[in-house]
Amino acid sequence: MPDQSRQLVLNAFLMHAGHHEAAWRHNAQAPADYLPLKHWVEVARTAERGLLDSIFFADVPALQAPDRRPSESLDPTVQLAAIAAVTERIGLIGTASTTVEEPYNLARRFASLDRLSGGRAGWNVVTTGGDVGFNYGINPWPEAPERYRRGDEFVDVVLKLWNGWQDDAVVGDKGTGVWADPTRVHAADHHGEFFDVQGPLTVGRSEQGHPVVVQAGSSGPGIALAAKYAEAVFTAQRTIEEGRDFYSTLKAATLKAGRNPDHLKILPGIVTVLGGTEAEAKAKAEALDDLIVLDHAHEQLARAVGLPIEQVPLDAPLPSAVRAPDETTGSRYQLTLDLARRENLTVRQLLRRLGGGRGHRVFAGTPEQIADQIELWFTTGASDGFNIMPATLPDTLTDFVDGVVPILQQRGLFRTEYTGSTLREHYGLPVPADRSAIADLRVG
Amino acid sequence: MPDQSRQLVLNAFLMHAGHHEAAWRHNAQAPADYLPLKHWVEVARTAERGLLDSIFFADVPALQAPDRRPSESLDPTVQLAAIAAVTERIGLIGTASTTVEEPYNLARRFASLDRLSGGRAGWNVVTTGGDVGFNYGINPWPEAPERYRRGDEFVDVVLKLWNGWQDDAVVGDKGTGVWADPTRVHAADHHGEFFDVQGPLTVGRSEQGHPVVVQAGSSGPGIALAAKYAEAVFTAQRTIEEGRDFYSTLKAATLKAGRNPDHLKILPGIVTVLGGTEAEAKAKAEALDDLIVLDHAHEQLARAVGLPIEQVPLDAPLPSAVRAPDETTGSRYQLTLDLARRENLTVRQLLRRLGGGRGHRVFAGTPEQIADQIELWFTTGASDGFNIMPATLPDTLTDFVDGVVPILQQRGLFRTEYTGSTLREHYGLPVPADRSAIADLRVG
């Protein structure tokens, strides 16, 4: 019997037409249908109908190659705020980069989302590995050690800002005209290597205290940052052995950082393609892969590994000179290269794998088979749940909600109704303390 | 007969419990009711029911004195995105500061709001006069000339980013797998005194091209910036003579800047208090003023003018040493001081005026009387409409929509249904050109 006290976390990681890069060619929708609010309302309501814990948007603040797939991307906090207004319970997690943002602005935006949504927000902390400095006058783009040092301080500032208002700060006494007690609103009073931020924030705490802190890097500095701050980690793990290794490593690091490992949820990504039979699912995955424009992906791969395209022939294994471009951001990429070598894939086969899930595990099968995988990983120390990445939207998410969720419910692994209203309640995370104990930081 | 081709613009400038600083004490609502989404949904839907052109949120990115009035403030783009999801037509204008933001992030956030809302967004450009550098490590806070030089370049960058995607850039050819034509997506390629921003933006143009550019400064540099870029100006004008002076000055400056003056809408603010009779409205205004906590406002005034509080006695006129604290941001303040002197107000009377509308004109009267004012200003060269500032929310807005709008409609001054779906269509503004003519900036 599964441990009923331990909750399976299912997050829907959503991307325009779906995670498969050719999803927009395969889907029934018109190409222009992926950006308007209507698409996201439909998708978010489906996820909420399935009682999923949360939805999640990744983000890179620069235009990616616009020619081959839906390339526009909205600011995640703005997109999630709109979704907040048309949903009731589901968590809302957005990505934002510590390298190109100001802590005060970012803290305020996510706190605003958290307040508007009644405590459903989460911030996925990234340092942005790929150079986007050209949009910000940042040149050269900082190397990983500096990015992570800045990221660490950035999170520290944001937490100070988020926890500044005591939960009892607003008095609201109409008789005396006292709105808030200023001695219960604390400054951040932060003065560090990268930031000087006084505060307080313009936004008080929400029903869940503050937004859930998510982290997505699985490299060395990423693990260190996660162990220190993260309450959920989105990661790419291709095999259950890798998943267990990562799980035990990160939980141990969290314990060593002085935190309760149960308060950090580890959620590997899994790109799902569903079918009524295994053959049907695999045929759909094949059909999607057939729609990948290989010449384009081929050029991108050659550029990424720094080799002339003629030295990376399509129908041969990867040249031995090819390695991940950066020790940090390449961690998912590195896993993919390892897989290519392990399975002796040709470049063509590798490109199909990458197009299907950008390095994440792709699983095509029946609802029963995917439920088996989720149960196996969850019950044998490889994950606390999954970051579900529908290959195509909205149909694969609908398939998951209607096909997989009921099986997990029947097995006693997943909720049959929302028992809480905040993201922390869904994830089983405690409400953090405010800064009321820090007397020397009081203002007013 | 009014000129039917000229459209009266009515924008609702909204602030937590209302513009009157004691509104939260007067209103029926519980103090905690002003920040949740429910309040803003109700207010925005009322404004839309009244066919108003737009709603607007001011913004200062620092906590104002939290003790005497609802002091929390959410990020306007996040708040407006949530409202976008529960409204259909009304414009959505938010304030953001060119002094504490990055152009790429700001351009992206407002473009995201514009896309999600189907072309209903507007950006109110401010340079933020009061020092908020303590939240951003900016010390000293730049003086007005530098702030406006940066602001000018900032708007230039944002416009380049907003117009980068040609309207025909997305091809969406499922057969060939071509999503977008990269030769139709243009970089900003901006390299200036303050910013180096390459682009392109991650977001294409909306149904209205890009968000409407609004400007709120009425000082010298504010007028120059408005003449160059603004499509609407929110201003504080206390008398119709002042209003006509400002109107003709700004329209002339716009013409001189090479633009069509009809494409810049001038909207003075008017704080409204409504009643079934004039006596009832004035009694409500008095009751509100009686709820202002004078000792607190008194302290603030003394601090603002740099005098010890005992040198600013409550029941005497303002000392002659008192002047506006800054030539730029003090413009509204200056108007108020001028009024105090002109009407020989005591400090107590002045504080009641300031508490009622922070320097904006306060008008308490019947719907008929306010409609008369609006018509007079609109038809005699003092404004293109008004920035309606309900003294209390939601009731004063409801009073305006149910009482004043029908009168303006009967007089043929205001729409009886929305004829367009974008903010530009409501305001009667043209869709700006994209950057397709700028061949040398093409990328790809």
TrEMBL record, chains A, B:
It comes from the Bacteria. It is an enzyme of class 1 (oxidoreductase). The keyword Oxidoreductase applies. Residues 22-383 form the Luciferase-like domain. Signal peptide: none annotated. One of its GO terms (molecular function) is oxidoreductase activity. The keyword Electron transport does not apply. Its EC number is 1.-.-.-. Keywords: Flavoprotein, FMN, Monooxygenase, Oxidoreductase. NCBIfam families: FMN_nitrolo. Belongs to the NtaA/SnaA/DszA monooxygenase family. PANTHER family: ALKANESULFONATE MONOOXYGENASE-RELATED (PTHR30011), C2H2 FINGER DOMAIN TRANSCRIPTION FACTOR (EUROFUNG)-RELATED (PTHR30011:SF16). This is LLM class flavin-dependent oxidoreductase.
